[in-house]
Amino acid sequence: MTQPAPIRRAPGHLAVALNLARRGIPALPLRAGKVPFGNCPACRDNACSGRPNMKTPGPCHCPRICHAWAAATTNPAVLSGRLWAQAWEEAQAVAYHPGGAGLTVVDLDNTEAVTWARHTLPATRTVRTTRGEHWIYRGAMQSANAVRPGVDIKSHMAYARWLGPGTGTGTMTDLPDAVRALAVKEPSAARPVPQVIAVPTGPGSGTCRHRSPVYLDRGIAMAEQRIAEARSAVHTTVYRTFLAVLSAHGRCGCLTDTHVARLFTAAQAKGESPRHCTDAWTNALTALGL
Description:
- By secondary structure, the protein is an alpha+beta fold.
- It is 34% helix and 14% strand.
- It is built from 9 helices and 11 strands.
- The chain has helices at residues 12-22, 76-79, 82-90, 111-120, 177-182, 213-228, 234-249, 257-269, 274-287, and strands spanning 27-31, 35-36, 93-96, 103-108, 125-128, 133-138, 144-148, 151-154, 160-161, 168-169, 173-174.
- The strands form 2 sheets. Strands 4, 5, 6, 7, 8, 10 and 11 form a 7-stranded mixed β-sheet that branches. The chain has a 4-stranded antiparallel β-sheet with strand order 2-1-3-9.
- A hairpin with a 3-residue loop joins strand 1 and strand 2 (35-36).
- Helix 6 (213-228) runs parallel beside helix 8.
- The longest helix has 16 residues, at 213-228.
- It is elongated.
């Protein structure tokens, strides 16, 4: 009697990837050192997708395992297919494409970065890494490296190592403006900017949720602390702090001259000139379209 063919069990890493795919999270294999598998000849140097000038990032349509994030897929036939079989045999870890799953990962690479996040960013799902933590938010954005010492942002056109659901704590929350602001580059100082400070007021009337003294004062105090703790790149820190404050409070008329004066005082205590404070504030208003 003919014996039935033995059941092939998916290797550990492939099983993890297939589970991620079922949850709508695009996955891919990583080699040793958290390195993705190389491009195939047809996709060398991102020839088929992922070009730097792409306005809308999208996956590679080549069936092979090409250029990192663009190879991530939720298609189980691709993940477990013949072309990827050797890769799973050699894989040392599983990665995923956060942007493809509608997520953003704030990669905190050391204890100093973790401490900064705990004092600056809203709490969310946190996963411990070898050297720090991943803070995972619901919502996608552009990726950016080295937005501050030890901090990278991984979302669109980036991949992050999957560290397993059992190591995470906390509840995932929506992507805050404070994280989006980190990826905004400060305009060049050579660019002329107006010198008038305009504190925007929101349209319409009614009670704004930010008018709670506790909420607003806590936000200004956190901004003052962030500026005071800057050890390097003070110009950039001041600009990004102004940008974060305006992202949260600039459209509803909550900010007063007193609040702005507190921020300027904190910046000048770190050696910033009144002129630079004015320029940074105006550039932040312009960047947000206020």
